[in-house]
Amino acid sequence: ELDPTIYDYDSFHSAATSAASVRKAAAKQQSVNQGPKYMNALLTAAAQRKQDQQVAREKFLQKERENEGEEFADKETFVTGAYKAQQEENQRLREEEEKKAAVEEERKRKMGGGMQGFYRNVMADSDRRHQEALEAAAEMEKRKLAGDDIADDPDTKQEKDRVAELAAKGVNITLNDEGQVADKRQLLTAGLNILASPAAPPKPSATAQKQDDSAQWNKKRDNGVRERQTRMMEQQLEESRKRALEADKEEQERLEKASKSKKTDTDISSARERFLARK
Fold first, then answer.
1. Number of domains comprising the chain
2. Contact (CB, 8 A) for 168 and 174
3. I want to staple 117 with a disulfide (CB 3.0 to 4.6 A). Which of 10, 111, 208, 243 is the partner?
4. What range does the domain containing 257 cover?
5. Helix, strand, or coil (residue 175)
6. CB within 8 A of 52, min separation 6: which ones?
7. Which residue stretches belong to region Disordered (predicted)?
8. Residue range 134-164, pLDDT digits in tens
C-alpha cells in the first residue's frame, strides 16, 4: 500500500521550513542566553587544574605512605568527613573522565579519521536534519487531520499582516498560486522607508558608574602626579642654571679684583722707587 502523502511536496516543504525556523530561533535564543563567551571556559580550566593538583598531591602522599612502610602501622588514623567527601568527589570525577575518554575513543574509532570521518559527520548531520523534517511533516499532517490550526512562522505571519494592512489601504498586491507575495517591492511604501530609531542605550548601573568614576579619578590623580613631577624637574633645572650663572659671575668678579689688586701693587712699587730717587 502506497503512502497517500508521498507526493505531498507542499506539506513537506512547509514542515522542513518550519523545522529550520525552529532550529534557527533556538540557536538565536541559545546565543542570547549563553552569557560570557570565554569566562566559563576559564573557570572550567581553573577547576580542572585544581583537581589535577589535588590528584597529584594525593599520589605524592600515597607514595610517602608506601615509603614509610610499617613505621606508623601501630598509630591510630583519623579521617575527617570533609577529607572523606573530597576523596569520594575525586573518585567520581576520575570515573567520569575515564568514561568520557572511553566514549570519545569509541566515537573516533567508529567515525574514523581524516577526511573520511569528516564526510561521515557531514552525512550524519544531513540525515539527522532530513529525519527531523520528516518527523515535522508527519506531525503537521496529524494536526491537519485533527483539525488544529497550524501557526505560521514569524516571517510568514508578518508578511501576511503587511499584505492585509496594505490591502485595507487599497494597495494592489500581486500574489502567486501559493498565496505568497510575488514581488516583495510592493510591500514597500513611497519614500525612504526609514526604520524606527533605535532605542536609547541603557543607563549604566550603579556599580558600572562607580567603577567609571573610580577610573576617572585614578586617571586625574596620575595626571596630577605627572604634572607635579614635571614642575619639580623644571624647577630643579632652573635652580641649577641659576647656580651656574652665579658661579660664573663670582669667578669673573674674582678675576677682575685680582687684576685690579695686581695693578695697584705695581703702581705702589713705582711710586716708592720715584720717592727714593728724589732723596
1. 3
2. no
3. 111
4. 208-279
5. strand
6. none
7. 63-162, 195-279
8. 777 777 767 767 766 555 555 666 777 777 7
